[in-house]
Amino acid sequence: MSTKIMKSTRGGPSVIEYRGMKFLLLERPTDGTMNTFVEELNQHGVKDLVRVCEPTYNTDRLEKKGIRVHDWQFCDGSPPPINIADAWIKLLKTRLRDEPGFCIAVHCVAGLGRSPVLVALALMERGMKYEDAVELIRTKRRGALNARQLAYLENYRSK
Description:
By secondary structure, the chain is α/β, with parallel strands linked by helices. It has a single domain (about 15-155), classed as Protein-Tyrosine Phosphatase, Chain A (Alpha-Beta Complex), CATH 3.90.190.10. The chain is built from 6 helices and 5 strands, in the order ββαβαβαβααα. A hairpin with a 2-residue loop joins strand 1 (about 15-20) and strand 2 (about 20-25). Helix 3 crosses helix 4 (about 115-125) and helix 4 crosses helix 5. The longest helix has 17 residues, at about 80-100. Pfam families: Y_phosphatase (PF00102).
């Protein structure tokens, strides 16, 4: 196959909204998809991008568009470590206070594990039950969240 850009098989970005919060769940962009990625972020008014996987692209173009990039890498298939969960909750509280109607984009490699677990935490912090958070995310990202991440969420207590 000689195409330069492979189309995603994961269904593209997913929007999740709940009680004044909006999230855009995505897979990691490539050099070939970066223009589309930036356009998507702009369409949703994203001001913060949380990258939880290994950095594989330059963030200059995003930062020039006014998008703050938060590099909070953690292990694939894992729940977030305490310091990342705390930084995430702090970001949410700041945006809820300072920028009502905000949209935060979150991506890992495939958009099925690390990024959905952070969004589930956000939903739970705003009062959604664990089961409902998982169900909502899975309606948007089929196959999201593994057993280890689910166990973490089931035992998570809002801060």
